[in-house]
Design goal:
The longest helix has 14 residues, at about 35-50. The protein has helices at about 1-5, 20-25, 35-50, 75-85, 155-165, and strands at about 60-65, 65, 85-90, 110-120, 125-135, 140, 150, 170-175. The strands form 2 sheets. The protein has a 6-stranded antiparallel sheet, with helices on both faces. A two-stranded antiparallel sheet has the order 1-2. The chain has one domain (about 1-175): Cathepsin B, Chain A (Alpha-Beta Complex). About 30% of the residues lie in helices and about 25% in strands. It is α+β, with helices and mostly antiparallel strands. The chain has 5 helices and 8 strands; from the N terminus they run H-H-H-E-E-H-E-E-E-E-E-H-E. It is globular and about 40 Å long. Its EC number is 3.4.19.12.
Length: about 180
C-alpha cells in the first residue's frame, strides 16, 4: 500500500486555497488548475453577471466569487472550472443519504465535499473543500488538511463518511464525466 500512496498526487492546504488544492487533487495533477486559472474564471463570472455588484474600495480584495489575496473561491468557480474540463457537477440531495450514490458508477469521476470548519480556537468560521477520488479501485480522501491521502477500506466506509458529512451541514457534489 505504501508504494501505491506514493503514486497519489496530494496537495496540502495553503491559506484559503482549498478549492485549488481540491481540484488538483481531484484531477491528480499538479497545476491542473492554477491561481491564475481560478482568478480568471472568477473574473469572467463577474463580467457575465447581469446583476453586477457596485464597486467599493473593498472590491479590490473581496471579490464576488473569491478573495484575491487568500483564495477562498466559491461554488460558482468550482462548477465553471469543472465544466471547462468537460465535467458535470450534480448536487446530492442530503435527504437521500449517501446510499443513493452509486460509488461504482463508471461516469463518476469523483466527489467534492464542502464542510463547515472552525479555526483559530473557534474565532473564525468558514467552509472547506475536500476531494474524494477512486484510484485503481480504491476510494481516497484527498483533503488538503490531511498530511497524506486517506484510503477507505471499502464503499461502505465511504458511504458512512458521506452520511456523517451530510448530517453535519456538509454538501456533497458528484463530479461526473460528460458522455461522449
Amino acid at each position: 500500500m505504501a508504494s501505491e500512496k506514493n503514486q497519489i498526487y496530494h496537495e496540502r492546504q495553503r491559506l484559503q486555497f482549498c478549492l485549488l488544492h481540491t481540484l488538483n487533487n481531484l484531477f491528480q495533477q499538479k497545476d491542473a488548475f492554477t491561481r491564475a486559472n481560478l482568478n480568471s474564471i472568477a473574473e469572467k463570472l463577474v463580467l457575465d453577471d447581469p446583476n453586477k455588484e457596485i464597486w467599493t474600495p473593498f472590491s479590490l480584495v473581496f471579490k464576488p466569487h473569491h478573495n484575491s489575496i487568500t483564495g477562498n473561491y466559491d461554488i460558482n468557480v468550482l462548477i465553471a472550472a469543472l465544466e471547462e474540463k468537460g465535467k458535470t457537477v450534480i448536487w446530492h440531495d442530503r435527504r437521500n443519504g449517501a446510499s443513493a450514490i452509486d460509488l461504482d458508477d463508471g461516469m463518476l469521476m469523483g466527489i467534492v465535499i464542502n464542510v463547515p470548519v472552525r479555526r483559530y480556537a473557534g474565532l473564525w468560521k468558514g467552509r472547506h473543500w475536500i476531494a474524494l477520488r477512486k484510484i485503481d479501485g480504491v476510494w481516497y480522501n484527498l483533503d488538503s488538511d490531511l498530511h497524506a491521502p486517506h484510503c477507505f477500506k471499502d464503499n461502505g466506509e465511504v458511504g458512512e463518511y458521506l452520511d456523517y458529512i451530510l448530517n453535519h451541514d456538509g454538501q456533497v457534489l458528484l463530479v461526473k464525466n460528460d458522455r461522449q
